[in-house]
Design a protein that fits this description.
The chain contains 4 helices and 3 strands, in the order βααββαα. Strand 2 and strand 3 (about 40-45) form a beta hairpin. The protein has helices at about 10-15, 20-30, 45-70, 80-85, and strands spanning about 10, 30-35, 40-45. It has about 90 residues and is an alpha+beta fold. A 3-stranded mixed β-sheet has the order 1-2-3. It has a domain at about 10-70: YefM-like domain (YefM-like fold), CATH 3.40.1620.10.
Length: about 90
């Protein structure tokens, strides 16, 4: 986790008074911690950083799923034609 620094901290007052300026800073830095009465209250994150974080989360989730599937016993499998016929799908 990234530590809050003077460059990454804003206050609720900053958010209320200088919203556009704060959003422009978030676009540049990627995120800002928002403090309320000296307590961390929230994190503002740029859409670019949010998308990057979601992609990373998806990669980790896929990796975990793949590792659990890899140890499952292997069956004989079914032919694609048989499955398509069972579900009424034309190939």
């Amino acid at each position: 986790m990234l530590l809050p620094t003077k460059d990454t901290i804003s206050t609720v007052t900053d958010l209320r008074v200088n919203t556009i300026e704060l959003l422009n800073e978030v676009k540049k830095t990627g995120f800002k911690y928002v403090f309320n009465r000296s307590e961390p209250e929230a994190v503002l994150m740029s859409m670019k950083e949010y998308a990057r974080l979601l992609e990373r989360l998806e990669d980790v989730t896929d990796e975990r799923l793949a590792s659990t599937v890899a140890v499952l016993p292997k069956g004989k499998g079914d032919l694609l034609e048989d499955v398509a016929k069972e579900y009424g799908v034309e190939l």
